[in-house]
Amino acid sequence: MKIKKIKYNSEANDRSSEKKKKHSLGVPNVSAIEKYFSSQQEEFTKSMKYIANRIISNPDLLRNSLLVGFSKNLNLGEASVMRFCKHLGFRGFTEFKKYFIEEYFEIPDENETKNRIYDIDISQQLTPQDVLTRASNLLARITLETKQSLAKNNSNLSLAADKIHLAPRLFIFGSDSARSLIEEVANRFNSIGVMTITATTVSDMVNKACLLSKGDVAIAVQSSGYNKDILKVISLLQKNRIFTIGICNDARSELSIRVDINFTSCGAYDKDYHILQDTMYVRVSQMLIFECLIGLVTSIDVQQVRELRMNALNTIEQIVQAKDDTPTII
């Protein structure tokens, strides 16, 4: 009797693995997405155009949401979203989402990413003008992406600003690579009357986290959002009922999920492929987020901040004059 061999369907398994990678690691092909929706524009209603434009500006919104969450983010009813999906020829939201991820998200080339030596493409000898143009374009892209991300988070920005304004103390902490940014931002907050303390080492984070109490606010800055030490400090803070804010590059990271409010900074970070997670371009995005928070906190009580600044300047002037008046002993 001949025994029939059962072949392992490796091809189907590879396809399934690729789909999973696209869902978790895929990068949206924005130009292809724009082309797909632009071909349908003439037949779209006003609400359909709105949905399409929101997906173009933030494809991850569709990838990371269920029907209920997606509709809520767009301030539309579920029926409107379902009509949009059916208009495009799909049975429902789930089928449209599955097609969208498979067709318009691409897995980054692992070898290309690992061989990349800098954030901008420097694969050959360039002129100063070429480098300046490429660096400026990257900065402009990151600034625009950060602006679009924050524009969708208006309510969170306002809530964070209110919490910081009312907090007796603000605690900003993160990995050592973000120390210069954290210290600069802390100085800015202190200058507008928000008592701010910082930490970038594990022991310092834990010690200062234990000093906080209910009503205080803590902001964690960490590019990947998967740093175990940062996550442990977040758990400690939340046990003490501290309001927590996270700033990282991955909206689906553990940090983003655990904190009360999360802001996603922009950059080239990829948790599986990319090594350059703490570049100056990421810092630009993080600084823009902090600038929005500082500006909003200032606007809550402009007069108080103005008086504080004037008092600080007067005190500095008095110290300088006192030094000038001190007789020199020869």
TrEMBL record:
InterPro entries: Homeodomain-like_sf (IPR009057), HTH_RpiR (IPR000281), RpiR-like (IPR047640), RpiR-like_SIS (IPR035472), SIS_dom (IPR001347), SIS_dom_sf (IPR046348), WH-like_DNA-bd_sf (IPR036388). Residues 1-24 are annotated as: Disordered. Residues 160-299 form the SIS domain. The keyword Transport does not apply. Gene3D superfamilies: Glucose-6-phosphate isomerase like protein, domain 1, Winged helix-like DNA-binding domain superfamily/Winged helix DNA-binding domain. PROSITE patterns: HTH_RPIR, SIS. This is RpiR family transcriptional regulator.
